[in-house]
Amino acid sequence: MPSRISDSCRPHHSQKHFDLNSIKELPESHAWTSSNDHYTQENSCNFESIPVIDLDNNNNNNNNNILDHIGHACKKWGAFQIINHSISEKLLQDIEVAGKTLFSLPMQQKLKAARSPDGVTGYGAARISSFFSKLMWSEGFTIVGSPIEHARQLWPKDYNKFCEVIEEYEKEMEKLAGRLMWLILGSLGITKDDVKWAVGPKGETKEGCAALQLNSYPACPDPGRAMGLAAHTDSTILTILHQNNTSGLQVYQEGNGWITVPPIPGALVVNIGDLLHILSNGSYPSVLHRAVVNRTRYRLSVAYLYGPPSGVRVSPLSKLVDHRHPPLYRAVTWSEYLGTKAKYFDKALSSVRLCVPLNGFTDAKDHKGVQVG
Ligand SMILES: C=C1C[C@]23C[C@H]1CC[C@H]2[C@@]12CCC[C@@](C)(C(=O)O1)[C@H]2[C@@H]3C(=O)O
Ligand SMILES: O=C(O)CCC(=O)C(=O)O
Ligand SMILES: [Fe+2]
Asked: Which DSSP string do the residues of 270-338 spell out, in sequence order?
């Protein structure tokens, strides 16, 4: 059994590296129309989108109000946007510049930091690519902890600025992710006393494990037939996503289909991941989401994928379990679950499921009609 998040991904299929910026016509390899990929581009743009929540207490009537708001967003959408989150505009700008600088390097330079076949960190296609017969219109770069090793490969003399920005971003996101986790759990009536693994000896939130994923989506000559990042749920507790001011992120909502999450300058998107779905014993669904591309604009996103401390076994919180609500999932560590995701992808949650709930609720991804590719 893998013990760290870096041990938990299986080798993905070898792939030619396309320089998407220079392609003038969509190659067959990237054309997502074939029926075997269950591809759908419909977008219900007339529906309301995910709620925007103000994290500044002074702008809300009282703290409970935030919790109600968050609880409602988690139940209904599995996602929300946040404003007044205390991440400075400067840092958001800096990380965008760092990402753009990285992805605009020549391909042979980026490949020096290529993710190894069984590794987690480095440059390459999204890890879930191996589950699809078509390639995605995106490039990714994954960082876990210090970026210095890969940064040295990319800029042998000049890697300091990149590392400084990444480390600052990771530090600030870690704090924000902890705060969001307690707010979300608070909306379920859970306090620090109920989650021993998340609290240190002085009552402080224990540092979780995390990965930072930079995603680059070049403008695409045929966006209607391409896919930036195929539909998936994140294998996290929660994910904090920064998108530049170009839309592309969509969330799936039962009954309404794919809904665009409009970029709001300075706002961040919060996604509920599979591990929170497990912790909440199925109350809060992990959100199915994807990124589409467009003809004219370059899009960049930065995802902070937040999980529990390494080795911690996550299971439905005992306060949420009783004879009417039996535990729906077995305990898993983050690295074990990442291994499960790498093997079963959209069936990963079901594969750790213990029983079918009494109210007949099923995993979002098991609903008929939801197409994950
Ligand atoms: C900590 C994580 C979470 C990972 C795997 C590992 C590092 C990279 C993450 C992503 C980022 C892009 C979507 C995803 C689906 C993918 O392909 O790579 C994510 C995956 C997951 O959430 O399962
Ligand atoms: O680019 C986006 O908006 C989505 C990125 C994403 O879902 C991820 O990195 O997990
Ligand atoms: Fe995601």
From this structure: EEE-HHHHHHTTTSSPPPPEEE---SS--EEEEEEEEEPPTTPPB---GGG-BTTB---B--B-HHHHH
